[in-house]
Amino acid sequence: MRQDDTLSVDAYGPAYFAAQIRKSDAKVAWQYGRILTLAGVSALWQQRVIDVGCGAGPALRYLTNQGALVLGLDHSRYALEMAAHLAPDAGVACSDSSVSLPCATACADIILLSELVEHLTDADALLRECSRVLRPGGRIIVTTPNLWDVRRWLSPLAGKTWSAYTDVTHVNLYTPTRLARALRAAGFAQVRWRTGLKPVCWISSRRLRLRWFIPYPPAVGNGLLATAIKAAQ
Fold first, then answer.
1. What is the pTM of this model?
2. 55-85: per-residue pLDDT in tens?
3. Cα 193–93–134 angle (5° rounding)?
4. Angle, nearest 10°, between helix axes 123-133 and 176-185?
């Protein structure tokens, strides 16, 4: 779900989720496969995964195809209807993640917060809830815009607005170090982060049928990923 104290759920209507619904299977597989690889997740078979703020369900579709037991949570009923259509093998439930998660304690192996925390004025409360819901040794994966993104400084020089500033629902942007501190404060251990979830650009060769991508330099890349483990009790 993507909602804060000042923005109505109406801000997250069909137009907001249209890009998620249109996203191809290949793009979904690359995006979430890369996120899981960077987070150190190698196998999903029978893993209990909760996608908090699942939106229209692109991650749910990928995760269920990998054999995970998946629950998607969102505050938008429209998004959940789309998610149930895109990922019929996943469970979905309406939930305001800024308040609490409708899940038992220590019931999940992995919790995914993909492009969510920037929409919440109090993401720290959600991180504490995720710590409650994860089993000891379970993993949290967070992706969000990166305040150290080099494009944040370069965009104004080209007369443009940095992409993270164009979304009025972004009310809580993070640097890598601030996100790492928030995870530790919520009780997580083994906190790691990296940036550059998306490449600078793709290079393709039709003749060789190959594609390469040029990555961003460390720390200043497009997109921030942090992952951590719930410490054993």
1. 0.89
2. 999 999 999 999 999 999 999 999 999 999 9
3. 40
4. 50
